[in-house]
């Protein structure tokens, strides 16, 4: 019966979660349409806007451009600051937190409030921030902005609430940590130095309290001046004027001497009682030359002087190497007794810190570990062994070992794939690490209930591919694959690879992986594709090579714009491989006439090679140079390996695919078929006879950013932008679905190509796949990005896959060695005889849903008018499916399926870096990721359910731990060692004694995370009890101290009363003139 469109049929798309009735087409512009369909579509949509919320979850990798380092010796957590204002806080594996300053200013200094669950950061905008770490998501409690002075150094004594802040002018200010208000007590630089000194001492580079007496503050100035300031008397105890600039100072735990590092590569040892000159000056790496002079050395930027009960003290410093030894790596030097060990590092040293057993600076330190922060790595050295081995890092700090060029994200993988990959990857792990437990073991983390197997794949510039276990918000490397082992090593400056790509000829451009069949495809920058199959056994194999020669008419070539030469956007400063053939050259312009048609860019190994267990190369496809021109880069790869097909598209002319249905009525200009050939293959492949090699046309890639192109000449330039295999209906008259290839172009055209594939296994080996364009053409705005298929119940139709079987496994006669295909259709109620299905098509600006086989447009939605979509995927969320889009303006959007109702639209981040566009990807379960920096992966979620469970899945940074008790100093040590414990900072720095600081000097800014952070921290009963216990312990400790003071006062009063009585008795009978 013929249907007629109703006037208000567009209203059927507006009911959230309701049943979708007769097909209609609604758009954001309000232009509903309808078309006759063979049946009613009855889809119960369950997703609403309440199911979506966008938030960051966790960040993996090494902090980009690190600047500062801090460690809490009681909580055993580590903090790393970065130039972009980020702070990473690390504990035991699973405890990994990222904080970001809103200002984005570089973090210059970090100070833990030891065992207090708080962190102070000093940023380059001269602002101090106090972070609350007693919650899973740390927040700023207070901020203090200095207006007139620049912060250069910070020091917080253990168990003190007063923070010393040194400035560029040489002054030292004091901040109350509890209120974050500046004290009126200031140590001015002109009072710290002698009045007769005519020059400014420079910025403050060091602050520390004397281990012997907390009332003495040691101040180090950059120009070489050192002052010990008596905080009670408000005067200098001593002043040291040294010729060389000072970089750092470190105390001996007894307070009887301290060591300084200088700009000339020397270390000086000073006695506070005799400061006229250092009693020891050493140049650890400065040797005496033949003429009697010492070698000039680099500055020693930091020194740590740590004592041990059982051995000689440790002197550990960075820098100080001789200038004469060119090309020497940055080094960390460990001096232990007479032994000097130099540990060379792969990158410059940013900061290092020695971890000790005690948090008290007046006790024997007992160092056990050195944490070294490099520009691109984190090294932890074991000091308890004479060989100083390093610890195996449990965090994924080597993501950037080679620059990341592409990413892929797979959620809800088969449960057996992660153990298999891990078992194979574990065989190739490095050895020689320290056997002791990882020293940064703070925090708590438990495996949450909402976890499932997740895998992240990263492709790199050196051709390596890494598989990561990303389950439960962690990241652990499972397996590493090196694609370069398929090829011979290219000689420098020789071969086609040198002409095409000078650096990184093996760089990975894109990957395609089927977790079920374990088939893996890799596209490289040198116009090559490698097909891998998984095996648990090693094997001796001959690599099958297939060389494809593609050619086009020279007038068909259009020069791409500078940043549009391939989809993996180029960027300034990024490490993505840059091609050297962006502009095609005329034949013979680069190579001699006789060398126009030489081989591919890389040479495949021709000999039999032994491959280890894991992914083993099964086929290598390479594109050849033609007429002296390099092959165009591969922009799209889609595998239909269940059909034994592999489609590779560069930029092909689509005239022949349209046929008579070409909407632009272009003149057909076929390539010169007689000049195309396939050469150099080692033997005839068992797959299809490269269907695209017979029909592909080479054109330069040019993406259209507009839905309409005014130039007729521009209309003739069309590129293939996406492909999708699937069981579909190639023609409207089809009754049963058949294998089809969906093709999307840069002009927004959708072409449907039926494939004729022999079903019998033997025929499949001998007969070729035939392709017959059906003439089916649909049009959208902008380049086509994604295809997906739903059944008539609205469930996602997964692509069929081949069940994995190990081709290298020993033969079992009871087991047939035949292919087994799995066709997945989630709706069991769907009949296989012509019920049809829904096709979801998304372009840069628009999304449409078509009903097959009638090809009627059911729904349409204009996603954006002012920007364009960079990434779109159909994903499963909350047992349903939706269309997720990421736009160039930073918006993340989700649309319901099949009605295309907007469910979420969040302005997440501005696209300031093309790296984000290249690496952003969605996956099932409401998750996504992107490369936030060259060294870090940021994971986000757009699922409300996951946001609600986020607190449960993240680790706890703070755990209730009792502060270790100070050692008994003994009577004599306490008597002769000064009255360090009688020092009360509150009496000196409080408002009653010191007054208020100038309001113009610093401005207090209350933090937004104060009240909210405390609410979140008090959310759990365990955390509440723990905090109550700590508060009770602190109260009991204060009461105990009060009792001790009371007892001391009573004893003192009794003694005074006794002496007064004795004096009265003695003087009782004396006359006035006898006194």
TrEMBL record:
<feature type="region of interest" description="Disordered">
    <location>
        <begin position="1"/>
        <end position="37"/>
    </location>
</feature>
<keyword id="KW-0268">Exocytosis</keyword>
<keyword id="KW-0853">WD repeat</keyword>
<dbReference type="Pfam" id="PF00400">
    <property type="entry name" value="WD40"/>
</dbReference>
<dbReference type="GO" id="GO:0045159">
    <property type="term" value="F:myosin II binding"/>
</dbReference>
<dbReference type="InterPro" id="IPR015943">
    <property type="entry name" value="WD40/YVTN_repeat-like_dom_sf"/>
</dbReference>
<keyword id="KW-0472">Membrane</keyword>
<keyword id="KW-0677">Repeat</keyword>
<dbReference type="InterPro" id="IPR000664">
    <property type="entry name" value="Lethal2_giant"/>
</dbReference>
<dbReference type="GO" id="GO:0006887">
    <property type="term" value="P:exocytosis"/>
</dbReference>
<dbReference type="InterPro" id="IPR042855">
    <property type="entry name" value="V_SNARE_CC"/>
</dbReference>
<keyword id="KW-1003">Cell membrane</keyword>
<feature type="compositionally biased region" description="Low complexity">
    <location>
        <begin position="10"/>
        <end position="37"/>
    </location>
</feature>
<keyword id="KW-0175">Coiled coil</keyword>
<feature type="region of interest" description="Disordered">
    <location>
        <begin position="807"/>
        <end position="833"/>
    </location>
</feature>
<feature type="compositionally biased region" description="Low complexity">
    <location>
        <begin position="701"/>
        <end position="711"/>
    </location>
</feature>
<dbReference type="GO" id="GO:0006893">
    <property type="term" value="P:Golgi to plasma membrane transport"/>
</dbReference>
<feature type="region of interest" description="Disordered">
    <location>
        <begin position="563"/>
        <end position="601"/>
    </location>
</feature>
<dbReference type="GO" id="GO:0005096">
    <property type="term" value="F:GTPase activator activity"/>
</dbReference>
<keyword id="KW-0813">Transport</keyword>
<dbReference type="Pfam" id="PF08366">
    <property type="entry name" value="LLGL"/>
</dbReference>
<dbReference type="GO" id="GO:0005886">
    <property type="term" value="C:plasma membrane"/>
</dbReference>
<dbReference type="InterPro" id="IPR013577">
    <property type="entry name" value="LLGL2"/>
</dbReference>
<comment type="similarity">
    <text>Belongs to the WD repeat L(2)GL family.</text>
</comment>
<dbReference type="InterPro" id="IPR001680">
    <property type="entry name" value="WD40_rpt"/>
</dbReference>
<feature type="domain" description="V-SNARE coiled-coil homology">
    <location>
        <begin position="1010"/>
        <end position="1070"/>
    </location>
</feature>
<feature type="region of interest" description="Disordered">
    <location>
        <begin position="666"/>
        <end position="713"/>
    </location>
</feature>
<keyword id="KW-0653">Protein transport</keyword>
<dbReference type="GO" id="GO:0015031">
    <property type="term" value="P:protein transport"/>
</dbReference>
<feature type="compositionally biased region" description="Polar residues">
    <location>
        <begin position="676"/>
        <end position="693"/>
    </location>
</feature>
<protein>
    <recommendedName>
        <fullName>Syntaxin-binding protein 5-like</fullName>
    </recommendedName>
</protein>
<dbReference type="GO" id="GO:0031201">
    <property type="term" value="C:SNARE complex"/>
</dbReference>
<keyword id="KW-0963">Cytoplasm</keyword>
<dbReference type="InterPro" id="IPR036322">
    <property type="entry name" value="WD40_repeat_dom_sf"/>
</dbReference>
<dbReference type="GO" id="GO:0019905">
    <property type="term" value="F:syntaxin binding"/>
</dbReference>
């Amino acid at each position: 019966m013929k249907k007629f469109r109703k006037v208000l049929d567009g209203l059927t798309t507006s009911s959230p979660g309701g049943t979708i009735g007769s097909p209609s087409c609604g758009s954001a512009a309000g232009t509903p349409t309808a078309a006759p369909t063979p049946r009613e579509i009855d889809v119960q949509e369950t997703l609403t806007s309440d199911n979506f919320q966008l938030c960051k979850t966790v960040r993996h990798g090494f902090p980009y451009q690190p600047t500062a380092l801090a460690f809490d010796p009681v909580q055993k957590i580590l903090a790393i600051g970065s130039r972009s204002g980020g702070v990473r806080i690390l504990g035991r594996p699973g405890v990994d937190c990222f904080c970001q300053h809103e200002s984005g200013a570089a973090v210059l200094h970090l100070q833990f409030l030891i065992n207090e669950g708080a962190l102070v950061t000093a940023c380059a905008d001269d602002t101090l921030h106090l972070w609350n770490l007693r919650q899973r998501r740390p927040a700023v409690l207070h901020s203090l902005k200095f207006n007139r002075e620049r912060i250069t150094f910070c020091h917080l004594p253990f168990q003190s609430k007063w923070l010393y802040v040194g400035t560029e002018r040489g002054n030292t200010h004091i901040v109350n940590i509890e209120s974050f208000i500046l004290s009126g007590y200031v140590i001015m630089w002109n009072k710290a130095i002698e009045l007769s000194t005519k020059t400014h001492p420079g910025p403050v580079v060091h602050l520390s309290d004397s281990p012997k007496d907390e009332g003495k503050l040691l101040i180090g100035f950059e120009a070489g001046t050192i002052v010990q300031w008596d905080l009670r008397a408000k005067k200098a105890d001593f002043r040291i004027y040294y010729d060389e600039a000072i970089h750092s100072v470190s105390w001996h735990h007894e307070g009887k001497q301290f060591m300084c590092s200088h700009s000339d590569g020397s270390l000086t040892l000073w006695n506070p009682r005799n400061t006229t000159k250092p009693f020891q000056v050493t140049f650890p790496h400065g040797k005496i030359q033949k003429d009697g002079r010492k070698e000039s050395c680099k500055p020693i930027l930091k020194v740590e002087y740590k004592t041990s009960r059982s051995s000689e003290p440790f002197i550990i410093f960075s820098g100080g190497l001789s200038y004469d030894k060119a090309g020497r790596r940055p080094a960390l030097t460990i001096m232990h007794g007479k032994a000097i060990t130099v540990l060379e590092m792969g990158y410059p040293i940013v900061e290092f810190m020695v971890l000790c057993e005690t948090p008290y600076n007046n006790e024997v330190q007992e160092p056990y570990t050195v944490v070294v922060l490099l520009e691109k790595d984190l090294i932890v050295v074991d000091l308890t062994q004479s060989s100083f081995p390093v610890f195996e890092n449990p965090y994924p700090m080597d993501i950037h070992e080679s620059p990341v060029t592409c990413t892929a994200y797979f959620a809800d993988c088969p449960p057996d794939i992660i153990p298999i990959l891990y078992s194979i990857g574990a065989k190739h792990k490095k050895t020689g690490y320290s056997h002791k437990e990882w020293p940064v073991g703070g925090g708590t983390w438990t495996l949450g209930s909402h976890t499932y197997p997740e895998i992240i794949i990263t492709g790199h510039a050196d051709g390596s591919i890494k598989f990561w276990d990303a389950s439960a918000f962690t990241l652990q490397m499972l397996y590493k694959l090196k694609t370069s082992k398929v090829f011979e090593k290219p000689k420098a400056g020789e071969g086609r690879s040198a002409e095409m790509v000078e650096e990184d000829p093996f760089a990975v451009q894109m990957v395609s992986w089927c977790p079920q069949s374990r088939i893996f495809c890799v596209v490289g920058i040198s116009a090559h594709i490698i097909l891998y199959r998984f095996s648990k056994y090693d094997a001796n194999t001959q690599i099958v090579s297939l060389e494809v020669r593609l050619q086009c008419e020279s007038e068909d070539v259009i020069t791409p714009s500078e940043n549009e030469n391939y989809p993996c956007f180029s960027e300034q400063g990024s490490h993505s491989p840059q091609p050297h053939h962006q502009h095609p050259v005329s034949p013979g312009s680069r190579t001699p006439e006789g060398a126009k048609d030489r081989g591919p860019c890389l040479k495949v190994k021709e000999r039999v090679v032994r491959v280890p267990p894991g992914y083993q190369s099964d086929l290598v496809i390479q594109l050849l140079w033609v007429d002296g021109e390099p092959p165009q880069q591969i922009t799209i790869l889609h595998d239909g390996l269940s059909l034994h097909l592999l489609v590779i598209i560069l930029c092909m002319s689509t005239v022949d695919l349209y046929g008579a249905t070409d909407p632009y009525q272009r003149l057909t200009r076929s390539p010169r078929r007689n000049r195309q050939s396939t050469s150099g293959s080692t033997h005839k492949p068992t797959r299809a006879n490269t269907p695209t090699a017979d029909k592909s046309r080479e054109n330069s890639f040019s993406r259209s950013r507009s839905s309409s192109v005014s130039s007729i000449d521009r209309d003739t330039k069309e590129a293939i932008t996406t492909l999708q295999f699937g069981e579909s209906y190639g023609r409207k008259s089809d009754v049963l679905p058949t294998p089809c290839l969906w093709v999307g172009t840069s002009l927004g055209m959708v072409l449907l190509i039926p494939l004729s594939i022999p079903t019998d296994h033997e025929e499949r080996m001998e007969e070729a796949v035939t392709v017959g364009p059906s003439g089916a053409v649909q049009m959208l705005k902008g380049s086509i990005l994604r295809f997906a298929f739903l059944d008539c119940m609205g469930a996602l139709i997964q692509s069929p896959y081949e069940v994995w079987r190990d081709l290298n496994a020993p033969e079992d006669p009871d087991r047939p060695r035949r292919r087994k295909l799995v066709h997945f259709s989630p709706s069991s109620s769907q009949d296989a005889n012509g019920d049809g299905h829904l096709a979801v098509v998304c372009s840069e600006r628009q999304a449409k849903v078509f009903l097959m086989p009638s090809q009627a447009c059911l729904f349409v939605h204009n996603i954006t008018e002012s920007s364009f979509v960079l990434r779109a995927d159909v994903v499963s969320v909350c047992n349903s499916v939706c269309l997720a889009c990421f736009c160039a303006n930073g918006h993340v959007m989700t649309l319901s399926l099949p009605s295309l109702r907007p469910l979420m639209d969040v302005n997440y981040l501005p696209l300031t870096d093309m790296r984000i566009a290249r690496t952003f990807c969605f996956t099932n379960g409401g998750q996504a990721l992107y490369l936030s920096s060259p060294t870090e992966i940021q994971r986000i979620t757009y699922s409300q359910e996951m946001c609600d469970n986020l607190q449960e899945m993240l680790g706890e940074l703070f755990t209730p731990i009792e502060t270790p008790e100070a050692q008994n100093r003994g009577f004599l040590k306490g008597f002769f060692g000064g009255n360090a414990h009688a020092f009360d900072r509150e009496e000196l720095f409080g408002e009653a004694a010191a007054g208020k600081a100038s309001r113009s000097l610093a401005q207090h800014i209350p933090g937004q995370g104060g009240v909210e952070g405390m609410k979140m921290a008090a959310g759990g009963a365990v955390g509440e009890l723990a905090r109550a216990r700590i508060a009770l312990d602190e109260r009991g400790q204060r009461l105990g101290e009060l009792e001790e003071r009371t007892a001391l006062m009573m004893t003192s009063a009794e003694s005074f009363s006794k002496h007064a009585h004795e004096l009265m008795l003695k003087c009782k009978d004396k006359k006035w003139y006898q006194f």
